[in-house]
Amino acid sequence: MIADLSLYLVTDPELCGDRGVVETVRRAVDGGVRLVQLRDKNATDAETVQQLLALSEVIDGRALLVVNDRLDAAVAARAHGARVDGVHLGQGDGSVLRARRVLGPDALIGLTANTPAHLDAVHALPVGTVDYLGVGVIRPTPTKADHPAPLGVEGFRDLAARTPLPCVAIGGVGIDDTEDLRDAGAAGLAVVSALCAVADPAATAAAFRRRWSAGSVPRILSIAGSDPSGGAGIQADLKSIAANGGYGMAVLTALTAQNTRGVRGVHVPPAEFLRAQLDAVSDDIVIDAVKIGMLADASVIRTVSAWLDDVRPPIVVLDPVMVATSGDRLLDPAAERELRDLLGRATLITPNLAELAVLSGRALADWEDAQSAAEELSRDVGAAVLVKGGHLDGDDAPDALRDARHGLRQEFPGERIPSRNTHGTGCSLSSALATRLARGDDPVAAVRAARAWLRESLRAGESLRVGGGTGPIHHFAGLWRRGGTESATEATDIAADWWERIAQTRAAIDELPFIRALADGTLEREPFAWYLAQDALYLREYARVLAEAARLAPTSQEQAFWAESSRGSIAGELDLHASWLTPAQGVSAATFAAEPAPATVAYLDHLRSVAFGGDYAEIVAAVLPCFWLYTDLGRRLHAGEFGEHAQNPEHPYASWLATYADPAFEEATRAAVVHATVAASAAPPERRTRLRRAFEASSAHELAFFAAPLESYPVG
Ligand SMILES: Nc1ncnc2c1ncn2[C@@H]1O[C@H](COP(=O)(O)OP(=O)(O)OP(=O)(O)O)[C@@H](O)[C@H]1O
Ligand SMILES: Cc1ncc(CO)c(N)n1
Ligand SMILES: [Mg+2]
């Protein structure tokens, strides 16, 4: 098997402190750590075995587990029933050949390598002895006192280029190294203090994951049946994965002979061949998420279950397909019980109303009742459940997400789209969800994004003119309308370029005393209130500029987006007045009646002059930094990058900080980035430069705006 090395936690009992190693590991795995190495130089073998047993239990197959150095302890822990996947050996820790012999061909064996000579030694071993290399140290680190001279990112790049083996970067790796190391060829980041020594290992691990995945395309495997007419099954899945930004793969459970009118026949290949397909993929490719669709019969379910147990992909979206839109059965009724056993292996289950009734073993009275049944099912099986309202009578087609483990109850309202093209909506939705989750969206954001995409694709379905029955949706409606796939990748490049060009401005914002004091809670009330008063003045005008973007928007989707953003920023201004800019908060009358400060005037003058020019692309380029810089800062503050204080609920500005780490704001920022860069990608080169300048100028104004409170705040 090929291991997912992307985020690798190496434990340190001292850094984990009172929380302990086991609890730290549990939370870090919750946040997305994929591989855990137990490292405790002082423990006895017997203690190491106990720790491996405890870790194996909290990890519960969600990540791989290896132990540093202690081959005998690994063997003993396995004998006691722990799932220990392998060992990591240092240059002096004993022979990797012996480890391979003892642990077998499926074990994960890592070796430390810091020099070209180490690489030569590994290359001289039989192929398959070592699975990955730990290459470092990257930076000087106190967690490895006897470390060799740091390699830095460039030294890592040189070593990684000299070996075909996957290399994990280790030693002093912090979250800001993520992109550099990934681009230098790292298969993953091995992290010690940046996860063990933080207040919230789950949030920090999630932040690492997001940054690691941001520049990469998630690899999504659909395990489903074939629909030769292309609207449902794996054909729909592959289109949906591609349209939502993933790399799609497909393992066939069954072939159907069907079209838009119905299913004429089903052929289920032998289970051994299904397993061979699954292994062919997982032996070679790291799988970021799995979507499961049509399972046909009990032997298919058992084969998929066994493979899932071996591979444990981090995200599993299970669409419990039982009956096609046309009414034809796609699952042997005798296999329904087996299907229930599979539910516990899923992250998210997406039944329609009929399927939910079968899975919960009772009739559903109405939509309310369906939602409580979804919650019961979620509690029973330990997975999130999205119940789909596509088959409700009436004018609405809502969905509802329930996760009993986290008390999550979210309804997604939406009017029914009058269309006959609903063939494969369930397949398409579940694949889109798997892709969005693998891209790092939380479940609510993933459902929002997948639904928005699905609804656009549903509306455009009829334009495809496919078949005379229930036709397919148009998976690429949004992408093609926005100027083709070329412009989509071009827009991604533009976003990366623009972001890179304001790197210095971003670094300067991070260094501002105002930001530092805001993060650690030492900022005085008066300059904070002064800042908010300026922000309120700013928001009022900014809302007008957003409204102008709405007025000029080329599509109704964009028009709605900018109008909603405009409304949101006025609501934000009113909120500021109601919650912070009040005498009760110790804000003086002078602050309350603030005049715009020079930085405020300058920023607004810039925005207004762009808005006055009446160029949609330039307006959206100019308003983008206000979304992007705040989201980025809010996320990093929340992740504890400026110290742990910002995560403390007692922080004097906790509620203000929380606004900017809000997933909905993050979603809006993602959309703003897409709209601005897609507009830019359609512009000729000189105009594109002008758009970029507008973006850069606004970013510089953001910096000045953040600097102003402690520079021009009228002291006394
Ligand atoms: N006419 C419609 N208008 C808007 N949304 C719809 C419509 N029909 C289905 N949907 C949405 O499509 C998704 C699939 O829902 P549905 O309940 O049809 O699932 P399904 O029966 O599993 O689909 P399939 O028949 O493809 O297997 C849901 O998000 C649902 O809200
Ligand atoms: C192969 C296949 N999977 C799923 C569905 C559900 O729509 C279908 N019609 N065909
Ligand atoms: Mg379905």
Automatic annotation (TrEMBL):
Pathway assignment: Cofactor biosynthesis; thiamine diphosphate biosynthesis; 4-amino-2-methyl-5-diphosphomethylpyrimidine from 5-amino-1-(5-phospho-D-ribosyl)imidazole: step 3/3; Cofactor biosynthesis; thiamine diphosphate biosynthesis; thiamine phosphate from 4-amino-2-methyl-5-diphosphomethylpyrimidine and 4-methyl-5-(2-phosphoethyl)-thiazole: step 1/1
Binding positions for Mg(2+) per the UniProt entry: D69, D93
Positions of the Thiaminase-2/PQQC domain: 513-708
InterPro entries: Aldolase_TIM, Haem_Oase-like_multi-hlx, HMP/HMP-P_kinase_dom, PM/HMP-P_kinase-1, Ribokinase-like, Thiaminase-2/PQQC, ThiamineP_synth_sf, ThiamineP_synth_TenI
Enzyme Commission no: 2.5.1.3
Keyword Cell wall biogenesis/degradation appears in the UniProt entry: no
Binding site for 4-amino-2-methyl-5-(diphosphooxymethyl)pyrimidine: Q37, L38, R39, D40, K41, N68, T112, K144
Membership in a protein family: Belongs to the thiamine-phosphate synthase family.
Protein name: Thiamine-phosphate synthase
Organism: Microbacterium algeriense
Species lineage: Bacteria, Bacillati, Actinomycetota, Actinomycetes, Micrococcales
